[in-house]
Specification:
144 residues; 7-stranded mixed sheet; 31% strand; Rossmann fold; globular; alpha/beta
Length: 144
Amino acid sequence: MTYLTRSIKDLEFVVGELKSLFKDRTIILLEGPVGAGKTELVKALAKSLGMQEAASPSFAIHHRYESATGLRAIDHLDLYRLKDQDDLESTGFWDLFAQKEGLVAIEWPERVDQELLPLNWHKIKIEIKMTENQNHRSIEISQI
C-alpha cells in the first residue's frame, strides 16, 4: 500500500489503515532519511491509541508510551546512534520481544540484523520518502 500525505489529517488516515494490520505482537520497521517523518508517524499512532505525547528517542534510544488504561503500549526505538550490534545488547532491546503482546516501532532498523528479529512477531515495513514538495511524503507500507 502506498499513500501520499499532504497534512496531519492524511497521516491520521494512514495510521488508521496501519492499525488494521496489527497483531498481538507487531514490529514496525520505519525506514527513511533524516527528517522524513518517522517520529511524526509514531506520534500520530500514539495519539490514535490514546497515549501520551510521543517524542524522538534519538538520545535515549528507547521510549515507552502507554495508554491511559494501560491496555496497550508502544516501545519506540531510534537506532540511528548505534555504532554496532554490541551497542544494541546494552539497551535491553531483545528483552522487548519476551512480551506476550507488544507493539515495537523501530526507526533506522537497518542498524540491526533483521534476520535476528523474532519469527513469532508480525513485521510491517514502512518506507517514508520525501517528495519534491517538502511538506508531502510518500508512505509505503508492506507486511514482511
